[in-house]
Design brief:
The protein is an alpha+beta fold and about 250 residues long. The chain contains 8 helices and 10 strands.
Length: about 250
């Protein structure tokens, strides 16, 4: 990798920002621009620190934060890599449903429908777009331990996922987020979620095999890529008879 066109040298004062934050921003820009694609190895810490004109300790601080955010991944004895989406990453970073006894499995995803449509007001607001903009509408059922547990409704901006077809969706070798990353250059790095309790509507009741009106948990998630740009809006309805929504809350840095 040629460092010069990828990483700009950092001025000593860096505009008043802490140097590690400036280094972090430069690394993010290199990843977002595609100069450091998913799965690629970063140069050594010593090489990067020299290119930035900072100490290895300062550079390591920036890398540590990106590792904690699952944007970079360290591999023992091999170095630091731009993180790839995988089934394990999805399960432990983005999938928060587990059996009440704490048992957690990757869900079996059953695609129920794939349609081209238009954004409604809710989807447009979540994605920062206009009502009526072109969208891809996907409906999935997630099965855990042989039971239908989650009814997913996904809304994707059609402009970001040109060429996505139902065939490509169904034949993907890994998770949806892996598909976004490797085929469309879109890396989901975090998500915003809102959770509320409600009664199952008729559609969800049919999908999950439960009675209409039964209490369920609804999670509305907006998936974000770099610079907090929304790329997916997902409404997940969870049958909580034997499963729970579990999330780890950490202290602010």
């Amino acid at each position: 990798m040629q460092l010069a066109p990828v990483f700009a040298l950092i001025a000593p004062d860096a505009g008043g920002a802490p140097l590690y934050r400036v280094a972090k921003r430069a690394l993010l820009q290199a990843i977002e621009s595609g100069h450091c694609p998913p799965g690629s190895a970063l140069p050594s810490e010593a090489t990067l620190a020299a290119a930035f004109g900072i100490s290895i300790g300062t550079l390591r601080h920036a890398v540590d934060e990106l590792v904690a955010e699952h944007i970079l991944a360290r591999r023992q004895g091999r170095g630091t890599f731009v993180a790839m989406h995988s089934a394990d990453r999805f399960l432990f970073q983005f999938f928060h449903v587990e059996r009440a006894d704490g048992h957690r499995d990757a869900p079996q995803v059953q695609t129920l429908s794939f349609e081209r449509g238009r954004l409604d007001d809710e989807g447009a607001d979540a994605l920062g777009l206009r009502p009526g903009d072109a969208a891809l509408l996907i409906e999935n059922r997630l099965v855990l331990q042989g039971r239908p547990v989650v009814h997913d409704r996904l809304t994707l901006p059609a402009a970001l996922f040109k060429g996505l077809t139902e065939k490509r969706l169904r034949e993907r070798p890994s998770t949806l987020y892996h598909l976004y990353q490797v085929e469309f250059g879109i890396s989901v790095v975090r998500a915003q979620e809102r959770v509320r309790a409600l009664a199952a509507d008729r559609t969800t009741a049919r999908v999950l095999g439960i009675a209409p009106g039964l209490p369920v948990l609804q999670v509305r998630r907006t998936a974000l890529t770099f610079n907090d740009k929304p790329v997916e809006y997902r409404v997940s309805t969870l049958h909580t008879a034997q499963h729970e929504y579990v999330n780890l809350v950490t202290r602010p840095q």
